[in-house]
Each structure stands twice: as structure tokens, then as C-alpha cells.
Amino acid sequence: MTNTIAVASDVALLDRKLNHLIQRGEILKAFELYYADNVTMQVNDEKATVGKAANRVRELEFLASIETVHQTKLLSEAIQDDVGFSEWELDATYRGSGRTVRHQVRVRRWAEGKVISEQLYCGAEKPFRQSCCCH
């Protein structure tokens, strides 16, 4: 039992540090520090991308598609044993497609201090709508 608590505590700290870097816009730094060489990453039910090198290319392509990040918001997070769960909202302007808000949940599995798999569950993109004081 004590070992399980220690593992969850370590994973919680690592997951929080990773999330903090993402919130600061340091996505590539987070990727290099916290993802394993054999990491598997998958978005919804698309084919998984395997290996750090292939996922680095995927991350670079994603970042190149963004013109401006307006806000990256961590809505919630939780840890269960060696799994981190986080819920995000990304408000960004994408090249050629305008400003949208994306909602996603990330499920990360950790081993030996590194993310070995990450599943992203993404909802439909919603066009950005400016708030009005009339609500």
C-alpha cells in the first residue's frame, strides 16, 4: 500500500510539472523532458503514433498550424496510480481556419518517470465567440 501511494505521489508531481509547462506554452520542452523514447500517442480513434521521434514531428506540425494561442486553460486534473487525467480548453487562431476553442481530455500513463502513452479525447472545435455583458 505504501509503495502505491509513493508511486501515485510521484506521478502527481510529474504530471503537475508537465501540465505547468504546457500552460506556459513550453510544449516542446515538456515533451522532451517527460515523454519516453517509446511513447505512444493517439488522438480519439485515429491511428496511434509510436515513438518519440515520430511524435516530435507530429507535435511540431501541430504547433506550426497555430498562428496565435490566446489561452491554454487547465480545467481539472486527477491521478490514479500511474495514470494522470487532465481536462483542457485551448483558445487559438489556426492558420487558414480562424479562431476556435478546443476542449480535450488527456489520459497519460507513466512508467519510470516518463509518459509511456497518452490518449487525447477531443471534442468538436467551436468557433470563438466574444462574451457579451448582456447575458
Q: Name the beta content range.
A: over 45%
Helix amount: 25-40%
Class by alpha and beta content: alpha+beta
> Remind me, CATH topology?
Nuclear Transport Factor 2, Chain: A
Mind telling me the C-alpha Rg?
Answer: 16 Å
The total of helices stands at: 3
Q: Ends: how far apart?
A: 50 Å
Bulk shape: globular
Enumerate the spans where pLDDT stays under 50 for 5 or more consecutive residues.
Answer: 1-6, 131-135
CATH architecture label? Roll
How many E strands? 7
Task: Kindly report the average pLDDT value.
Answer: 88
Major sheet: 7 strands, mixed
The helix/strand order is: HHEEHEEEEE
| Overall CATH class | Alpha Beta
Describe the structure.
- With 135 residues, this protein is an alpha+beta fold.
- The protein has a single domain, classed as Roll (Nuclear Transport Factor 2, Chain: A).
- Helix content is 32%, strand content 47%.
- It contains three helices and seven strands.
- Strands 1, 2, 3, 4, 5, 6 and 7 form a seven-stranded mixed sheet that branches.
- A hairpin with a 5-residue loop joins strand 1 and strand 2.
- Helix 1 runs antiparallel to helix 2.
- The N terminus and C terminus are likely disordered.
